[in-house]
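Exercise 7. Predict the joint structure of the components listed below.
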Amino acid sequence: MSTSKKRLGSIVRHGLLGIWAIFALFPLIWMLIMTFKSEADVMTTTFIFTPTLDNYRQVLLQSDYLRFFTDSVITSVGAVLISVLLGVPAAYALARYKFKYKEGLAFQILSFRFAPELLVVLPLFMIYQRMGLHDTYLGLIWVYQLISMPLIIWVVRGYFEDISVEIEHAAQVDGYNWWQVFMKTLVPLIKPGLVSSALLAFIFVWNSFTFPLMLSGFNVSPVTVAAMRFLASHTVQYGQMAVAATISALPAVVFALLIQKHLVRGLSFGAVKG
Amino acid sequence: MAKLRIENLYKRYDLKGKKKKNAKLNDFAVNNLSLDCEEGEFVALLGPSGCGKTTTLRMIAGLEDITDGGIYIGDELVNNLHPKDRHIGLAFEDYALYPPLKVYENIAFNMRAKGAKNDEVHRRVMEIAPLLKVEDLLDKMPVKLSGGQKQRVNIARAIVRNPKLLLMDEPLSHLDGKMRQELRTEIKRLHNKIKCTSVYVTHDQLEAMSLADRIAIMDLGVLQQFGTPLEIYDDPVNEFVAAFIGEPPMNILKTTIAKIESEFYFTFEDSELRILVPNRYYDLLSDGMVVKMGVRPMDVIIGKEDSKGEPVKVAVFENLGDERRIGVHVGDKLFMLITSEEVRYKQGQSIKLEVRAEKTHLFDIETGLRIRN
Amino acid sequence: MASIELSGVTKRFGKVTALDNISLEIKDKEFFVLFGPAGAGKTTILNIIAGIHMPESGVVKINGEIVNQVEPQNRDVAMVFENYALYPHLKVYDNIASPLRSPRHKKDEAYIKEAVERVAALLKIDQFLDRLPVQLSNGQRQRVALGRALVRYPNVYLMDEPLAHLDAKLRNVMRGELKMIQSNFNTTAIYVTHDFMEAMSLSDRIAVINEGSIVQVGASDEIYYLPCNEFVAQLMGDPEINLLDCEIDVSGNVYSAKFTEIDAVIELPHDADVYATLKDYGAVKLRMGLRPQNIEFSFDPADGFIQGQVYSFETIGNKSVLTVTVGGKKEVRLIAPNGLPVKLDQNIYIKPDLMQSLYFHADSSEFICRYNEAAIRALAAEKAGEE
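Solution:
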């Protein structure tokens, strides 16, 4: 009796999960299908049509899309790199040192993520215009710190706090100077947190839309904004837009899959107390 | 207050799948357990984890089905009674006090559930509270209490209805050192006052030795020995009981009996050490016989120069102030001696050992059972 | 191999003074124990010697050289931390090898292999070398932490409560093992503990620390038998020493102790030194210290025995503690064999062995005198002479 009941339960469970998966993935599948449709098929067919690579050809070869892609890579990687270089020492300081208003400062950093981007982007636009940062790599990388830095600092700080200070002392007594202690002992221990938060930060930055919409122009234009261009022309090029969107989503999807593994490792990391 | 009688009690868990096919006799969590607890007696169920002591307690409480056998409280067979009808008080390891109720109401809860009148509840709570020294806590909420205080309230709650039987499952295991010792004393003193028949489950031999009138030692679901702390400590029935009780543990070593000039000696593999066998065992022994000998560190004596036997080198000497401990290597084991005499030894110094005749035990090499004469 | 000297060391954390003007001299190759209750400042002393903390004032010398400004990695010390502080991402082998791979103490891999295997064998962890610290039990981790220190031959081994987190049984075993391998140290060792048995067993000398100050320094026998005050007497011994308020009555040539809390009078055995000291001391009020093992008991009334009632009976391992209420209120602890058939609140009769009694100042708690003082000083001196 109990086995048949169990089997039924399992079928129901999988059925429900399947429905949910279709619901969640359907827009992506739809978009993918759309990239292979000709302009005529987009509106008239659903699953049965003559596939074509025309859209890809248009986007990749006959537009500036690859340049926009490069812009995205440069700004996102740059932003994450700077966040790591500055965020890890900041996280260490927040975890280890006692100083006045420490918690306030830590909260302040996190609170950058609270304000809706639309709220700050207008004043930023004015400021950037005056400072000549508008439509530059530096400008975008700078503003991306608002997204990536708090995440990295908060995750890595937690990792540092989990490492007992005696481990640092032990390494010092073992004969390593502070820099060697940091690189040989601390970095391996925070690695799971650092990697997963950096990847997550990268995805957030990559997908960012509001900031680049206002703060970038024709010189520097990440894919999220660039995809809009296909809207802006005289007709809406749904097929090409789908290609642009698919390619721009690619890194995020790949990294999300990577992160999944690291997040699991990162979260189940309990060795520090040892 | 009532007697507790357990007759041929078995508990077998319904094993699933693969495990079922390999089911053997020792799949019984409790295997043919019989115990008689006198009225007002304090009995400890003692054993390593998984020995069946908690299962036994839960069966007495009615929280667990009985596979076979009978449990009698007073003279009443309670196998099929609901826990609430067994007139028992429970104090378990995880102090589940009702968080929204004050201590007073926590203690009163069971009485109120039975529809007791307010003034009766009040009288009883005020009677119990001083016994457990919680009279100053009655107005507090459980979250404000320390671990020890919670456990006091828990026990107060268990005894408020004058149960026939008080069941406790490791009530002190969450507490640390001093608090634990303090509450241990309180429990003992409480029992001395209310004389409620009590069954107390613990894995801590010191707790059992300190609290119980009689101790039931279990292992793998089987009762090993049921006796007073003195019997358990001085007269263990087998190697398991001997090794389980006492800290530092009893020296138990494989030995070959050697007959030299009409006297028997304990000799040991890979060791020079030779100890004279107490006279009382001479009838049982023969030259070359292999047995296990067991003697507590306190019952090993430093031999004199003219003592019989062969000396051995001191491997470790510790002066602990209150006592001194000497360890000698026997094979890869350490044979310990504890003395309160003011002696001083150095590592590597020679020492002869003797054993107190009446405190030296022999165990069968195969079965581990005591060899008695 | 080194001598260590602290003079006038003071350390504050914010407003809290952790160490107040500490001066200590630790001899070369000495096994020196810092003993005291939690929060006394013992670990801070270790950290200051290791260079992890900087003292606000005072001088730290290793081998006569002032090292206040020397970084930990350059002090040539090895330390065992209370929480072990193993590197979680490294295998046991690499944990132990860590000091020998550091730039400061660099050795070639062949040497490292031999050294790691030597300490692993000594500490019986040879079969765990391939494991990560998480895969070890507390006792095994503790051994690894010890191994990481013993793999080198530093100026000094610093050990911070290495056995504190083990259960009682394992602690007994490990303390014995530590005692056995002590001769392998061959250098100065400073060992922090709050367990008087560890202090007694392992030490050449003990410094008793309380609230950031040194209370007494001496060989274990000296500290145990001649504690400088009640605080030290209470720390050394489990169960704690009994302290009984008493007044000295002098009638002719005979001195008697009148116990004010329990309404009993006992004649003090004649001993010229004790009598003389008590006489010089003048005041009549003092406190008598009696260790629990120095009190006899009987369940039948007898001459010279004081009546009391059994309050509790607790087994503490190889012996039990009998707490007796005397005079209705005063609790006296004494040692009894395990399994003693005893009923709570039953009558019991006790008799102190006054030849083992200690005397303390009633107000200041300072040590005044004890019986057998000369013999005990000789015993302590003999131990000291061995080193």
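Discussion. Chains B and A do not touch (no CB pair under 8 Å).
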